[in-house]
Amino acid sequence: MVLPLALGCDPRPRVGEVPPRSVDAVAVERAASDPARVGPLVLAHGGQGSPASRSDGPAVAVDRGFARLESEGEDAVAAAIATIESLEDDPRFNAGTGANLRLDARSIEADAALMDDRARFGAVAGIADLRHPIRVAEAVAASPHLLLVGEGAQAFAGTLGLEARDLSTPQARAKLARGYAKLFAGEAGPWSEWDWRRHWNFATPAPAKLDEAMALLEAAEAGAQGEAPDETPDETKDTVGVVVRTAQGRYAAALSTGGTTLAIHGRVGDVPLLGAGLYAGPHGAVAATGKGEAIIRELVAARVYELLARGQTPADAIRLVTREISPEEGVGVIAVSDLGWGTGATSQMAWAARDRDARHRADTWIQRQDR
Ligand code: GLY
């Protein structure tokens, strides 16, 4: 698989300005790198905007992924899936149970994707009512296709015998209530300049005022399971993700999401788009989180991967690609290569990493680092 940057046809100067290191220089750096840095590793995030206090979720998830890695040896994809499933089951994160609701306060449209270093890729967009959307992406990766969407994807998922589940939670409804408040106050960024009511594409009518929107949520609440959220509101917006490196230097990345906070029917973000939300290859693995539109425009994962392939450390590669993305856009990235691993985000992001020696969490190292 050849990336646009490798072909030299990407018009953006920022990463292109980074001089590629010679193959020899890369080889020397690898040979000189601390052997303790190279070994099995699972690194997961709980989404851009998620506070470090929630890094216990990714910490449990990476333990599960690492256990899978230890029991299944070289299967980086199996470890990535086990990690994502754990995060999909955690209602505090925007994936699986707890996924964001769409603007109608009823529907959830989940996206998921995975990729490994043999260019095996599978993705799904716009599916509902499944406990583990990542399992659908896995099945797509085993098919002749790369990406399935909407009704076709849902019907395909129906052939897999996966566990069905109502993914809506009180936390997601509370988050949409905060989104409605911003929307009707004209404080929702580009939504304030867009006539979203004119383009409303749900079966139910568009709310004209905030109290009508809140009534949509109350109606959803009436038929719902679960207790009111017992936590203070947070800015967790987005997506769960994982990158994996095996003992033999095999790589995989995976993502799962309910999409962005305010979204009409059919909106798809970066997660199922190869090179936008995730990328994996022989030089490493990358998983992004945050505002999908910004991640797609900046082709975040492919560009970070390209820098890994040129011999940059994961932390440097993340910094170079994210430094010009506005904090208002909100983007985070995790990455691993044979030079180490790194995390970086334009705002807070819960993450955890597990290697043979230890488990690391966002509340011990905020932002980014090389290990
Ligand atoms: N990053 C997930 C999304 O924007 O849908």
From TrEMBL:
Coiled coil: none annotated. Substrate binds at R267, V268, G269, D270, T289, G290, K291, G292. GO terms for molecular function: N4-(beta-N-acetylglucosaminyl)-L-asparaginase activity. It comes from the Bacteria. It is an enzyme of class 3 (hydrolase). The record marks D238, T239 as: Cleavage. Pfam families: Asparaginase_2 (PF01112). CDD domains: Asparaginase_2_like_1. This is N(4)-(Beta-N-acetylglucosaminyl)-L-asparaginase. The lineage of its organism: Bacteria, Pseudomonadati, Myxococcota, Polyangia, Nannocystales.
